[in-house]
Write a structure and sequence with these properties.
It is a single chain. Helix content is 47%, strand content 0%. The protein has 4 helices and no strands. α1 packs parallel to α3.
């Protein structure tokens, strides 16, 4: 899911995006322990985009969104949607959500 080593600035921005969700410190640490790649996801193109998709298409908000991220933090890194016609990119596909 990550193509290159992120720079510190990008990682800091990604952390700010995650903190803006209202995660407790414990929830944030659990998310990062399970999916450390979240810090290397592009803050706007990936994290914000995926969070907006969760809010808009799946109607997840506030605590429900945080609980969903706690159960499946890898959704932050999804970059593909086969829309039901499998393309073999399952590790990064929204169909799994």
């Amino acid at each position: 899911m990550v193509d290159a080593v992120p720079d510190r600035e990008s990682m800091a921005e990604s952390l700010l995006v995650l903190q803006s969700l209202g995660l407790s410190e414990t929830e944030l640490m659990a998310l990062l322990k399970t999916f450390p790649e979240a810090l290397s996801c592009h803050p706007q193109e990936q994290l914000e985009s995926n969070l907006n998709r969760l809010r808009d298409e799946h109607k997840l908000k506030d605590k429900i969104l945080i609980k969903a991220l706690g159960r499946q933090p890898r959704i932050l890194g999804y970059t593909f949607s086969c829309e039901g016609d499998c393309a073999g990119e399952c590790h990064k596909c929204w169909a799994r959500f």
